[in-house]
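Protocol step 4 of 6: structure prediction from sequence.
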Amino acid sequence: MNDIPLHQTGLDPEDWSQTRALGHRMLDDMIDWLASSRDRPVWQRMPDEKRAELRVPVPAGGQPMAEIYEDFRRLVLPYSSANEHPRMMGWVNGGGNAAGYLAEILTAIFNVNCGGRDHAAIEVERQVIAWAAEMVGLPPQTTGVLLTGSSMANMVAVLVARRAALGEEVRTQGLGAARLTAYASSAAHGCIPRALDMAGIGSDALRLVPAGPDYRMDMSALRTMVAADRAAGLRPFLVVGTAGTVDTGAIDDLGAIAGIARGAGLWFHVDGAFGATAAVSPRFRPLLAGIEEADSVAFDFHKWAQVPYDAGCVLVRHPDLHIRTFAQSLAYLTHAERGLAGNPPWPRDLGPDLSREFRALKVWMTLKAYGTQGIAGVVETGCDVARYLAARIAREPTLELLAPVTLNIVCFRVASGAQDLNALNHEIVVRLQETGIAAPSTTTIDGKLAIRAALFNHRTVCADADALIDGVLALSSSRTK
């Protein structure tokens, strides 16, 4: 039997020179797109007719890559969520960075599965985890794993805490009669109750501890709630401190929480999705005092550290507990002393995923390219712009600051000009987005709808804060005439 020609069975091009040329063009185009980000509207809605063009049956035959790229340029690129834009101020999104962009090219072509085995990508991830532990002050033996984001990182921490509370049997027998309870600030992120839900503990097991006027967890209330649950025959097992609340950027008193956790025998976890990154800044590291005492920490490199999506991280102080929470004994995944099956523990022994991309490369290259000093500069600049924005708000008689500015999140509103101020401020935010002037988001502070500016993009400067306020004032004036 004659062999079938390779070009009929494989997916490689017959002529790599065409692929090389198109790849160079794509890279040049995307760099131009980044360099011109400030000249574009922040966001624009995708027209219905272009949405419809994407809704087609799965292709039966192939299409030239050059044509597919043109479809991308026409249907996808103009309608991004605009994380790269300096006036994307909604939600908590990093802006990416040049080293990370290039790393993603290498990652895609390298195409390794980082669930395990003995290869260099696993060592790169271990180094990234060691650096992450050093950044937040956890000990050298700390284990960790890279995940999609802090939602999964917090989930992993809950599972390790559950294993610590109930022992090995929880993996095979479930919770049984155990009635676990956990504690977090009323300002904690929604992924915390969701993690308890997915862990089989139930979201009702989460006690939301009131926050004080500074939007930080009330320590007296925490002690009272833990004691009351224990007296009622429940089993407190976990307390979550938040390092950077999503609404206002407030940081719980992590040192005080650590002390309460030790005294009550609770697992102390820190959800530091974005705020943990401030640990690299000498100016803001004191706000995180106590994070180094945590049993586990979750945070994202793709937020303030500017690594391209996605790059979440969980760190666990207790390696044995971490491994015993996830490791399995399966014949086809057996560790060996030598060969490709060596070098345990593998990332799949530390988290839920067996199939995993090489996330660590973009983190490794980002930290090597800019160092902690470079990331600290991003943190400090974002906080400086936030303070500039707050000062500008204070000078405008029609505007009102709604929460203290702890880090880089500013919540304010137009405080006059309409009977329904919540509706007015909501409409202003939508109009800012639709006109492409800026893209803040909204939240609710003490019953008042706030315009929320989250200043995470390393490209954002004070002029962008002025553009936001100028846009708010202009739209407010036009809406109230």
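Step 5 (inspection) to follow. The radius of gyration is 25 Å.
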